[in-house]
Design brief:
56% of the residues lie in helices and 4% in strands. With 336 residues, it is mainly alpha-helical.
């Protein structure tokens, strides 16, 4: 028997259950969810629909828990537990829609907890920092767990964006905001199919149109989370280009926004210098030439020059805690 929580680091229980159901060595083993975070009826129906045989809500009396486990094992031994009805090729769209809905609802609950803690002034600043940071990183971890090609990408983009913001003399609060937007810039990819993210060849036109939806989708997801609503323009426009050939809105120049322009450069640099499913990573020198080549066409030339200075001079130490500054800004916005 496999007994799994749902809210876990790196990979959550829903993802684990799906992987087990797709593995011939594991699919016949009874899978039981045991969770205190996902307790709504919809969550239970979603888990059972994925092939779990039971959904147990914490806390449960130890004797009752053991009785339940014995019943499951007895049914298994007597052949009363039917094989999972979840085929390996279960509609990916259906799974992603349900999974994203569960995740977003839990993340919104974390934000509500943060807001209530702030309003009641019952938590210390350190506690608020931990809660908010865990909320953000839960989203980042969920995204990066989708594919090995997304692992580490958001964190590297955040580092490059932070350094570029520092180079152009933005203040601590602005640098913190840029970093937060960078960490979440690809959150819309939660809604993409794995076979697109992992495709070992170039995408078709239709597949690329699907991928381009992630910028707008990410902005929509974050817009429903009040403390992060102000960074949604940066998320939406981080693939816009100076000449208007970007997406999703085809805007140009100053309409793109400073923070989105920073994200675009940081994102592009990491994409070039990282492994992709269809090619190996390219050199830093190649990336620099690409930035120069498309300066003024795709990228803001002022930001390109600043980023090249960062690469030439080396990364600088950030002498303030960007996450703490974000928390302080949140407290001001949500102040009673």
């Amino acid at each position: 028997m496999i007994i799994s929580d749902i809210l876990m680091p790196v990979m959550d229980g829903f993802q684990l259950c799906r992987m087990c159901q797709e593995d011939d060595r594991l699919s016949s083993i009874p899978f039981v969810f045991y969770s205190a975070s996902y307790t709504e009826r919809q969550d239970q129906e979603f888990g059972l629909g994925m092939g779990a045989v039971r959904f147990i809500v914490k806390p449960m009396d130890p004797d009752e828990f053991l009785k339940t486990i014995r019943e499951i094992l007895k049914d298994y031994e007597n052949g009363l537990l039917l094989p999972s009805a979840l085929p390996v090729d279960k509609d990916e769209d259906t799974f992603l829609k349900g999974y994203s809905g569960r995740l977003i609802r839990q993340l919104e609950k974390k934000v509500e907890d943060l807001e209530e803690s702030n309003k009641a002034l019952m938590k210390s600043e350190a506690d608020l920092k931990d809660l908010f940071e865990s909320f953000v990183m839960a989203m980042v971890n969920a995204l990066e767990a989708k594919s090995r090609w997304t692992t580490g990408h958001s964190r590297r983009v955040a580092h490059y964006a932070e350094q570029l913001a520092l180079e152009i003399d933005l203040g601590p609060a602005e640098i913190a905001e840029v970093k937060m937007a960078a960490l979440l810039h690809d959150i819309g990819k939660l809604g993409l199919k794995d076979n697109i993210l992992d495709k070992p060849s170039h995408l078709t036109e239709e597949e690329f149109r699907t991928v381009k939806e992630h910028a707008a989708l990410g902005a929509e997801i974050l817009h429903d989370i009040k403390p992060l609503r102000h960074i949604t323009p940066s998320i939406r426009h981080h693939h816009e280009k100076s000449d208007g050939s970007g997406y999703p809105d085809g805007i140009t120049g100053r309409d793109i926004g400073l923070f989105a322009g920073i994200l675009h450069i940081a994102d592009s640099f990491d994409a070039i210098t990282s492994d992709r499913p269809y090619r190996s990573s390219l050199s830093k020198e190649y990336a620099v030439e690409e930035l120069k080549k498309f300066s003024g066409k795709q990228f803001d030339p002022v930001l390109v020059d600043a980023f090249l200075r960062v690469l030439d001079n080396g990364f600088r130490c950030i002498k303030f805690n960007t996450m703490r500054i974000m928390i302080q800004g949140l407290m001001k916005v949500e102040k009673i």
